[in-house]
Design brief:
The chain is an alpha+beta fold. The protein is 38% helix and 20% strand. Helix 7 runs parallel beside helix 8, helix 12 packs across helix 15 and helix 15 packs antiparallel against helix 16.
Length: 491
């Protein structure tokens, strides 16, 4: 066992350092021998090395380098080869309540007979009204892995219905939404970066108008990243051939620049890119490249700051190691990785040194922030939640009213929330002991109209149509629209 452990510790050592490292390992083994012989409680080599020495060594590097014991490494391998399964339904998750907004054609949800407005009361006998939102999301995630029995209440039906759904493999496109914010101005929401993302982005742009578009708002908010190649492909859709997209740099990794292919034919319309604190990795690569080359204005909030290369090394004894081996840098030289605590992590000191420079400039000479992550050119916070809005959301008033309203009315794309609809909603709220002051109702009137229309469209015309309505009250989308509208396309 000890010999295998020596091999595990030596496996990554360069030849020139092997002799010195061997002496260090001998010292470590000497400590272990003393502990094994004299400690008050018996200790195994697995405890000493797998749970002690090796994790302790990695903690000095950075918070992302991780040692996997054999069982953990096997779980990692299974996750890498697993497929995504689901039921094909879009739901609204509220404290203690889950309401179906849409079932996708041909999916288990649609085949079972679930429909918009159905409220899921229990999953596999577990009542949902006793769970908070986080617990609900966890339960729904677990239920997608095996057949699930649902107890459902349908509007206008007093009897609780039961459905059994068997999950199927789902192919979720990374481009979640594509529509026009106004004539000539497109909007794309990219949820992740997968192998086909670049092609999906290009196809979505062509459907919206291609090179005839007058502007594009690219939404990378809440996008955690994904495949590096997909990020490079996506950024190259908008940049001139030969421009640098990214630099990969590490102590034991040859420095490499990624550039736009020489045969690229980029789109040239004005652009705005939306980011927030959950935009990470590949999202930051795209945003950073477009910002450094002055190709797009970045709107929203500072991104997460994760720009590192993780390499997975199989080790002896069926263990494994995920090690940070390099960092990503934007074309201007900024490290995307937010510096680690330099007092604890050597890699943090290196990143801090790079980002401490103040002369990061775009192609046009603008100074851009180098503290890790991507800082927006236009800082725009999300919409604020007032006390009245919180009450309406927490009570599921919008979703519940929309369910009743769509049962009684035929909804078309020309539908608008008129004064009479607002009056109905006010009576509905009063019946549930929600009676806002006149000043509250007046100040939130526009928000209420938009939310009602969004929820009614969600359940009658589909969530994609609801998102188009919601975009009208999203301050970050609207700021992006304002930016691309006022920028003249390059001649």
């Amino acid at each position: 066992m000890l010999r295998a452990t020596f091999a595990l510790l030596l496996v990554l050592a360069p030849a020139a350092l092997a002799d010195d490292l061997e002496q260090q390992v001998k010292s470590l083994v000497g400590v272990f021998a003393a502990v094994e012989a004299n400690a008050a409680d018996p200790i195994s080599s697995e405890q000493a090395f797998f749970q002690g020495a090796i994790p302790g060594m990695l903690r000095r590097l950075d918070p992302h380098s991780v040692f996997f014991e054999p069982a953990q490494f096997e779980q990692l391998r299974q996750l890498e080869t697993s497929t995504s399964k689901g039921f094909g339904s879009v739901v609204s998750v509220l404290p203690g309540r889950v309401i179906v907004l849409q079932t996708l054609p041909g999916t288990p949800s649609a085949k079972s007979g679930l429909g918009p407005g159905d409220e899921i009361l229990a999953v596999n006998g577990i009542r949902l009204d006793r769970l908070d939102s986080e617990q609900l999301i966890g339960l729904l995630g677990q239920s997608r892995q095996r057949p699930a029995r649902l107890d459902v209440r349908r509007p206008g039906n007093a009897r609780v219905l039961q459905f059994t759904l068997t999950p199927e493999e789902m192919q979720s496109p990374s481009v979640e939404r594509a529509f026009l914010l106004k004539p000539g101005i497109g909007y794309l929401r990219v949820a992740s970066f997968d192998e086909k993302t670049g092609a999906e982005v290009a196809a979505a742009i062509e459907k919206l108008g291609g090179r005839n578009l007058q502007g594009l708002v690219l939404d990378l908010r809440n996008n955690p990243g994904g495949v590096l190649g997909a990020a490079l492909h996506t950024a190259a859709l908008f940049l001139k051939p030969g421009l640098k997209l990214l630099t990969v740099r590490g102590r034991a990794v040859s420095e490499k620049d990624e550039k736009v292919p020489s045969d690229a034919q980029p789109y040239e319309f004005p652009m705005a890119v939306l980011i927030n604190g959950k935009s990470a990795s590949a999202s930051e690569i795209v945003a950073g490249a477009l910002q450094d080359h002055d190709r797009a204005q970045i709107v929203g909030e500072a991104s997460f700051g994760k720009g590192l290369v993780q390499s997975v090394f199989p080790l002896s004894q069926s263990a494994g190691l995920a090690l940070t081996t390099a960092l990503y840098y934007t074309p201007s030289g900024r490290s995307i990785q937010k510096p680690f605590d330099a007092a604890q992590f050597e890699l943090g000191a290196a990143a801090a040194h790079i980002n401490a420079q103040s002369d990061f400039r775009t192609d046009a000479g603008r100074i851009v922030h180098g503290g890790g992550g991507i800082q927006p050119d236009a800082v725009v916070p999300p919409a604020q939640m007032s006390r009245f809005r919180a009450v309406l959301d927490g009570s599921a008033a919008f979703t519940s009213f929309a369910t009743e309203y769509t049962q009684a009315h035929k909804i078309t794309e020309s539908f608008e929330v008129t004064g009479s609809v607002l009056d109905e909603f006010q009576v509905y709220l009063s019946g549930r002991n929600i009676r806002p002051a006149l000043s509250e109702w007046s100040s939130e009137r526009d928000f209420i109209q938009n939310r009602l229309k969004t929820e009614i469209f969600n359940q009658s015309l589909g969530v994609a149509k609801g998102d188009e309505v919601e975009a009208e009250r999203d301050p970050q989308i609207q700021r992006g629209l304002e930016i691309v509208t006022r920028v003249r396309p390059a001649e």
